[in-house]
């Protein structure tokens, strides 16, 4: 059941509410996002109740049922049930706001810009840009990204980049067969815009860090 918060939630977490529910069921969300998923699911259930009693009231008043003495008590009960459902929905909506606003504030404080990307994130985006697929382990259900260059992207790295809106996956394909992972417009911009700023953001003085040239192996 759609809610009025779906778009706000997707902007805040960086992916769809469908995936929010799915990942919550798999235990893949952090504590704060998991609370949001729970609040949103409860709101969706409350919204479904409102819709049910609203449709029932429309049917009772549409002429579908005989207009007799027994109809009016049914209408009165349905109106009362609709009022209770609306009250419940408003309470659940407040719960969503309480859990959503801190995530929105965090997203606003930490926008995904090229100057804020760390050297490791730049390296992962470069590897993904050359071709990558997301797989799910059949036993552990853990996610991992395998790139064409052989670089492995952990589930935590993948979720961070996806939540930041830098990468996306083709969910039309099954996970066991591999879902193609590509850069979003924001991800490509992060790699191409202001390259000097990206290099400056990495600790060039640290040996072996990207993009500094790695030491030759002995």
Report the uncertain regions. 194-218
Biggest pleated sheet: 5 strands, antiparallel
Sheet-strand content, in percent, reads 5-15%
Q: If strands are numbered along the chain, what order do they take across the biggest sheet?
A: 3-2-1-5-4
Mean pLDDT, nearest integer? 80
What does this molecule look like?
- The chain has 218 residues and is α+β, with helices and mostly antiparallel strands.
- It has eight helices and five strands; from the N terminus they run αααααβββαββαα.
- Strand 2 and strand 3 (152-153) form a beta hairpin.
- The N and C termini lie far apart (60 Å).
- Helices cover 56% and strands 9% of the residues.
- Helix 1 (6-13) packs parallel to helix 4 (71-109), helix 2 packs across helix 3 (31-61) and helix 3 packs antiparallel against helix 4.
- It has a five-stranded antiparallel sheet.
- The longest helix is centred in the middle third of the chain and has 39 residues, at 71-109.
């Amino acid at each position: 059941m759609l809610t009025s918060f779906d778009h706000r939630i997707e902007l805040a977490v960086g992916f769809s509410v469908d995936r929010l529910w799915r990942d919550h069921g798999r235990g893949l969300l952090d504590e704060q996002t998991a609370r949001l998923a729970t609040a949103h699911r409860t709101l969706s259930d409350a919204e479904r109740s409102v819709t049910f009693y609203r449709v029932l009231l429309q049917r009772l008043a549409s002429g579908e049922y005989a207009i007799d003495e027994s109809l009016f008590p049914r209408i009165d009960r349905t109106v009362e049930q609709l009022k209770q459902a609306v009250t419940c929905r408003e309470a659940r909506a407040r719960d969503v706001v309480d859990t959503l606003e801190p995530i929105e504030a965090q997203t606003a404080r930490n926008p995904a810009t090229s100057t804020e990307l760390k050297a490791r994130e730049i390296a992962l985006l470069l590897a993904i840009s050359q071709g990558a697929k997301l797989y799910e382990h059949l036993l552990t259900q853990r996610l991992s990204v395998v790139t064409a260059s052989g670089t492995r992207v952990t589930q935590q790295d993948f979720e961070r980049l996806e939540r930041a809106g830098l990468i996306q996956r083709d969910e039309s394909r099954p996970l066991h067969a591999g879902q193609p992972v590509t850069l979003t417009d924001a991800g490509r911009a992060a790699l191409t815009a202001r390259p000097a700023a990206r290099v400056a953001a990495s600790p060039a003085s640290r040996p072996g860090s990207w993009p500094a040239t790695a030491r030759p192996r002995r």
